[in-house]
Design brief:
Layout: E1 3-7, E2 10-12, E3 18-25, E4 33-39, E5 46-51, H1 54-57, E6 61-63, E7 71-76, E8 81-86, E9 95-102, E10 118-120, E11 124-128
Parallel strand pairs: 2-11
Antiparallel strand pairs: 1-3, 3-8, 4-5, 4-9, 5-6, 7-8, 9-10, 9-11
Length: 130
Amino acid sequence: QLQLVESGGGLVQPGGSLRLSCAASEFILNYYAIVWFRQAPGKEREGVSCIGSSALSGGGTNYADSVKGRFTISIDNAKNTVYLQMNNLKPEDTAVYYCAADRGSSRCNSMMVVTPAHLWGQGTQVTVSS
């Protein structure tokens, strides 16, 4: 079935790095806009980064202001996997991170708002603490 699986989360000290992976089955990631979201307890789910379809829409990436210069989104088409490289992590980055394929768009939306068109993974916990 259509499925996304996140991995790579864990506990890291402030200033450390993690790389999250989002692997897809039964569909090709590079035909959709893929968005990383995160959600901390008691807070709304927020968009972190997006990568557009290079096959359909010329690619392109967007980042939330809070992570610009620290996070990098990328795709490995051979592995059908999207990555989120997170550097210089801060305690406020602590959250469950989800990847989502936007079945309604091949282009990134700078707002990175949750829509019913998103296909979700189960999430991976990132905890930044000393």
